[in-house]
Design brief:
The complex is a heterotrimer of chains A (336), B (333) and C (298).
Chain A lengths: L1 H28 L4 H6 L6 H11 L5 H13 L13 H36 L4 H15 L2 H15 L22 H7 L3 H38 L2 H8 L4 H22 L2 H15 L4 H10 L3 H29 L1 H5 L2
Chain B lengths: L5 E14 L2 E14 L3 E5 L6 H9 L6 E10 L2 E2 L5 H5 L6 E4 L13 H12 L4 H14 L5 H6 L7 H13 L5 E5 L7 H18 L2 E6 L2 H5 L4 E6 L2 E7 H6 L4 H8 L50 E2 L6 E3 L5 H4 L4
Parallel strand pairs in B: 3-8, 3-9, 6-7, 7-8
Antiparallel strand pairs in B: 1-2, 1-4, 4-5, 9-10, 10-12, 11-12
Chain C lengths: L2 E3 L9 H11 L1 H18 L1 H4 L37 H37 L1 H16 L2 H12 L3 H28 L2 H8 L4 H9 L4 H24 L11 H8 L8 H28 L3 E3 L1
Helix pairs in contact in C: 1-12, 2-4, 2-12, 4-5, 4-7, 4-10, 4-12, 5-7, 6-7, 7-10, 10-11, 10-12, 11-12
The chains are: A mainly alpha (336), B alpha/beta (333), C mainly alpha (298).
Chain lengths: 336, 333, 298
């Protein structure tokens, strides 16, 4: 098993190198002078230009530039935002918890609704319940989420006034930032009103973000359960006189969840895609909105660094999921 | 068998499968009796309905299968009239079943120990320690080499033969009165087959258990069964004590089966007999006898009317579903 | 246990007929196909059936609600937007962008993906590893982000958005083709073909490709859905179609602020996207089931 672990971890390295290379070349591909892009559109004097040229190493051969960039990245220097003049890594660190909080809540929602729905649809196969659940998840899967967000805002914020339209917290609350997670920080500050306000702000974005993973999880659970319920060992479980509950939730579900858990883990990429769209509509101050605005503002260091960080995050999570998968599936544990 | 209590009485069991509004008959009017200590063999080709019969007895027929009629009396109680919850009390405790593909029939994510323990936990009143002891005891009873190691393993780590022993251990854990074995040796090597058969025989004798042994292999069943039921196309076509059957078959199908056994390959023939044609397709409804298209002795009546199962009292247990059973045909009995 | 589907007369069906038969039996897939054909017809015939020019601004009929509402005006079936343009016509023309672009994107990704995947699967070795790693990296970057960045580099326009989405959808085709090619390469009919002198391109196109078409077809339909959604998303973000082009996504972007005043300008374009993608997904599901060899025709 340790061998497998090591091998899987080693595979991350070329992935990481690849991402770095990709982002490195992104800037060089953008039209226009890269130095001007990296320095900002305010224009530079001739001396500053030469200075920057040397600083960014454009006077060196490409491969050395890449090595230099790689070295910078490994040291934690991913550039500086042209707009805010803050280091990219620092900005990322500040805004990441907002996205993480949203993503985690969305994932929890998607899982606690999706798995039971999928099980129900499988057990009640071909009935009205099954058809309804399948239809709903198909619609959720086919929906443009930016439109879905607008519809929910129209209904709940504009027409009913139940939820706020934007942001994480009403500006009247002043909460110290401890973890960056609003739900935790408001509790730590002992401010119950603020806590509920934060929750209030989370509801719609979380629902929107959860929609696609919910649909995927429901479908996946249903089809996995259907496969498992056909298996011989389910027949054996019934022949042993076990209760239907035990047959479904102990024998079947344990097996059915194995592919579902991998799917859940691999949703990171999808979640981040959704986050970008969700955050921009709800003005949620997370990395999705951050990187999108950077694109609008031609803040290339942020784009470059942001893509590297986000992609790196996805690779990290996927690798962890792969390893976890080996742990939970006893069959794979024997193979090397 | 004489003097022994009747464990299982099946009367007029019929099961249909409903697909897209079409009703397909799987088994029709199947009846059988099993007494304590008796082994009943059910023989037939694939598709003859032998597995469906066993599942129907256990009450495990699910959609799209439907029980059309029938009574299944175990210890005098009609199982099919019970609710699923009530029936569950019997399954695994008084009547157990083992299946054809032992490795597929075990849950891949639970260890052997867990799976055997589960039967004890859901039916008995033993505490954890007692169960652990019993599980180990069962491993030894079924002749498992290295019992402790096996208990900690997962099904995919064990061979087919070992997994079948595990299935048997699970099945006899609560000392059932009746065990149904659905093609338990078909998927195993010949040498392992022998071992499993021996094990079943021994267990049966030691516990005076009733055993239903389902197979397509007449030669296998001849070594283990006291009486044999031959099934064809969902119906029982012949019922006979084993020795008598091999002496003289009454139904043309049984005769053909016997002739096609490798043992009966005679150098005079220089060819192994096989039965021409195949079973009727699912859903195909014949006006007369279901075997008629392939029967060497078929006459006009056979394609016009359906024969019923006639018990021959003088030679009980003996019954045949044929208008012209072989012996009677030749005029001698 | 295999599923059994009964048909009346079915002696010798060719594999193609069998697939078509199974698909025909799937009512929702057939409905989806009908909807898609209907939409395609609408898109193709847009210049003929649209009541107005989609760019024409009728300054005296701004923000008119659709037909069933009290203040609706004749001639504007689905109302108008804030510049007095007819919604129905704009939506019809928008269908052209979504459907045709979606199709073009899928074709592009399919063709290039299959070729790259074939090279990876047949050449193996270093080429394969490099290609695989590259695809993995592309898949690691969230789809929208990758598209956004590509468009950011090339400049926002509909064409660039389409190109970006094609690139984003490419890796899936590469992976599936490569996997399918690898598993087919060891099969006997391929070896037989090779002994016959077939190799490289001919071996692939003539011998292998016909046998790996099923998963590719399914992926193509599902990619069509993704393509439409991604183009719309880019349009919505202002990185794809630029106003006044009536692409559905960019329609949503310009009407976002009108959400309280004229909700139909928001609901209708989104609904159009939803219906199209839903139909495409249903069809894709139906195709996947029809092409699945485990479901028997009896």
């Amino acid at each position: 098993m340790p061998q497998l672990l090591l091998r899987r971890l080693l595979l991350v390295v070329p992935g990481f190198l690849g991402i770095t290379a990709l982002t490195f070349f992104l800037i060089r591909l953008a039209p226009g002078d890269p130095i001007l892009l990296l320095a900002g559109e305010r224009g530079v004097s001739a001396e500053r230009y030469a200075e920057l040229q040397h600083q960014f190493g454009f006077d060196q051969p490409l491969i050395l530039q890449f090595v230099d960039y790689l070295w910078q990245v490994l040291n934690g220097n991913l550039g500086t935002s042209v707009v805010t003049q803050t280091p990219v890594l620092e900005e990322f660190g500040k805004l990441f918890p907002a996205t993480l909080e949203l993503a985690v809540i969305a994932m929890i929602l998607a899982t606690i609704i999706g798995i039971p729905a999928g099980v129900l649809a499988a057990v009640k196969r071909n009935t009205v319940i099954d058809h309804s659940i399948t239809a709903i998840s198909l619609v959720g899967y086919s929906m443009p989420i930016f439109w879905w967000a607008l519809l929910l805002i129209l209904l709940f914020s504009v027409n009913l006034g139940w939820t706020p339209v934007a942001g994480r917290l009403n500006f009247i609350y002043d909460i110290d930032r401890v973890t960056g997670f609003m739900l935790i920080d408001t509790l730590l500050a002992g401010d119950k009103d603020a806590f509920f306000d934060a929750l209030h702000h989370l509801v719609l974005p979380a629902i929107v973000l959860a929609t696609i993973p919910l649909a995927v999880i429901t479908r996946m659970t249903r089809s996995s359960m259907l496969e498992v319920l056909k298996q011989d060992y389910i027949r054996t479980a019934r022949a042993k006189g076990l209760s239907e509950f035990s047959v479904i939730f102990k024998h079947a579900l344990r097996n059915a969840l194995i592919p579902v858990i991998t799917v859940i883990g691999l949703q990171t990429s999808i979640l981040l895609t959704g986050a970008i769209l969700t955050e921009i509509i709800f003005s949620w101050p997370g990395i999705g909105k951050w990187i999108l605005e950077a694109v609008y503002r031609r803040d290339y260091p942020v784009v470059q660094g942001g893509v590297l960080l986000i992609a790196g995050l996805v690779i990290l999570v996927n690798t962890t999921v792969d390893l976890l998968y080996v742990v939970i599936n006893p069959v794979l544990r024997q193979k090397k | 068998m004489n003097g022994e209590p009747v464990l299982l009485e099946v009367e007029d069991l019929s099961v249909d499968f409903e697909l897209r509004g079409v009703s397909i008959n799987a088994i029709q009017s199947v009846s059988l009796k099993v007494s304590a200590g008796e082994t009943v063999g059910i023989v037939g080709e694939s598709g003859s309905g032998k597995s469906v019969t066993s599942l129907a007895i256990m009450g495990l027929i699910k959609e799209p299968g439907f029980l059309r009629s029938g009574v299944v009396r175990i210890f005098g109680e009609d199982m099919l009239k019970l609710s699923r919850r009530q029936r569950r009390k019997y399954l695994g405790r008084d009547i157990s079943m083992i299946f054809q593909e032992p490795t597929e029939s075990l849950n891949p994510v639970f260890s052997i120990a867990q799976q055997i323990d589960e039967v004890l936990k859901s039916h008995g009143s033993m505490n954890h320690e007692q169960r652990t002891d019993r599980v180990l005891e069962l491993m030894k009873i079924v002749g498992m080499p290295e019992p402790e190691k096996t208990l900690r393993s997962w099904p995919h780590q064990l061979s087919g033969g070992m997994n079948q022993r595990v299935m048997i251990a699970m099945a006899i854990a609560c000392n059932p009165s009746l065990l149904i074995a659905d093609e338990p040796t078909t998927a195993l090597d010949v040498t392992v087959q022998e071992q499993i058969l021996k094990l079943l025989r021994r267990l049966q004798q030691e516990n005076n258990m009733g055993l239903i042994f389902i197979t397509h292999d007449l030669s296998v069943v001849s070594t283990i069964a006291d009486k044999i039921i031959v099934m064809y196309a969902g119906q029982v076509v012949e019922l006979c004590a084993t020795d008598d059957l091999f002496q003289q078959a009454l139904h043309p199908y049984t005769e053909a089966l016997l002739k096609s056994l490798p043992e009966n390959y005679s150098s005079a023939n220089k060819r192994m007999d096989s039965i021409k044609g195949s079973q009727p397709a699912a859903g195909e409804i014949l006006p007369g006898c279901r075997f008629q298209p392939r029967c060497n002795y078929a006459r006009e009546l056979c394609s016009q009317q359906k024969p019923v199962l006639n018990a021959i009292e003088e030679f009980s247990p003996r019954a045949v579903r044929c208008f012209y059973p072989l012996v009677y045909d030749s005029g001698t009995v | 246990m295999k599923e059994i589907i009964l048909f009346d007369d079915l002696s010798n069906l060719t594999p193609h007929q069998e697939v078509w038969y199974k698909l025909r039996a799937n009512r929702s897939a057939m409905t989806a196909l009908a909807v898609l054909l209907f939409l395609i017809a609408g898109a193709v015939l847009a210049p003929l059936i649209a009541p107005h020019d989609p760019y024409e601004q009728y300054t005296d009929t701004l923000l008119v609600p659709p037909y069933l509402s009290a203040e609706s005006r004749p001639g504007f079936l689905l109302g108008t937007d804030d510049l007095g343009r007819d919604m129905f016509s704009r939506l019809l023309y928008g269908a052209r962008y979504s459907l045709f672009l979606g199709f073009a994107i899928v074709v592009f990704s399919l063709v290039s993906g299959v070729m790259i995947g074939a090279v990876a699967g047949m050449k193996r070795g270093l080429t394969e590893t490099v290609i695989l790693r590259l695809m993995d990296i592309m898949l690691a970057v969230p789809a929208i982000l990758l598209a956004i960045v590509i468009v950011a580099i090339l400049g926002p326009s509909l064409v660039n958005a389409a190109l970006a989405v094609s690139i984003v959808l490419l890796p899936q085709f590469v992976r599936i083709t490569r996997a399918a090619v690898i598993s087919e390469m060891s099969r006997e009919y391929v070896l037989a073909s090779q002994l016959d002198g077939s190799k490289g391109g001919r071996l692939f196109f003539h011998t292998i490709l016909p046998n790996i078409s099923s998963p590719l077809i399914v992926l193509a339909t599902l990619s069509f859905s993704s393509a439409i959604l991604d183009i719309a998303a880019l349009g919505f973000l202002g990185l794809g179609a630029q106003p006044p082009t009536p692409e559905w996504g960019s329609l949503l972007s310009s009407s976002r602020e009108l959400i309280e005043v004229a909700p139909w300008t928001v609901t209708l374009p989104g609904l159009a996207i939803l219906v199209t993608v839903l139909a495409s997904n249903l069809l894709g599901d139906g195709l996947r089931d029809a092409l699945d060899p485990k479901v028997e025709v009896r």
